[in-house]
Amino acid sequence: MIVKTLLAAIVAGLIAGVFMTAAQELRVTPLILHAEEFEGGEQPAAGHEEHSSLNGVSPLEKLLAFVSPITPAYAHEGGHEEESGILFGMSRFSGTLLANLVTGAGFSLLLAGISIMTGHRITLANGALWGACGWLAVHMLPALGLPPELPGFPAADLGERQVWWALTVLLSAAGLYLLALRGELGSKVAGLVLIAAPHAYGAPQPLDISSNVPAVLGAEFAVAALATTLAFWIVLGIVSGFINDRVVKAG
């Protein structure tokens, strides 16, 4: 039963990863490429190579950028993406697809593990709720302090952001568990306290918030990024529940 549940989670994660890639290509990636034109304070000239602010950074920062969520943007030349990306010479689209497949499978396995440990199965009836809770813990609640940022936007120290984001995700997940799966009043109060704690402390913020990127573009990106990840998690939860009902339960 456990093996079938984990295999079903991997399949659901891969399906959600493909969906996420399509959604990002339609809504998120164009905004990133548009924002890169403002880096350096001027439009990039033809034949001049521009690099996204997400290039040349550590793999952990790229992971943080994805789950924040931001699609990794690859270097492009003269308005066209390079044939060689940062992952084994793949194009930007191929690298993004691979990252989404791996991340989708990872998040799906995480949900499956939590459902097994708590004794609450993911079904078609509650799959959307599981997905919504995952989105809240990983994306929406951390975004209250560290919203998705376009290349060229100012940001605080990377290490501080990583620590705050990781702690916020863990506390938010624990708080949502207490709110959604525990019936005691004390548990629900503790859940609210855990969710509010990192925001009461405050997320690290940059000292200088000036940017060449228009604020309206940054706001549009934040909305698009959070909307696409919400759709990703809802699809992940529903597909996981559907597969569990049809395959795991039948077995």
UniProtKB/TrEMBL annotation:
Annotated InterPro entries: CbtA_put
Membrane spanning residue stretches: 97-117, 124-143, 163-180, 185-201, 221-243
Pfam families, per database record: CbtA
Alphabetic keyword roster: Membrane, Transmembrane, Transmembrane helix
Domain of life: Bacteria
Protein known as: Cobalt transporter
Organism: Sinorhizobium alkalisoli
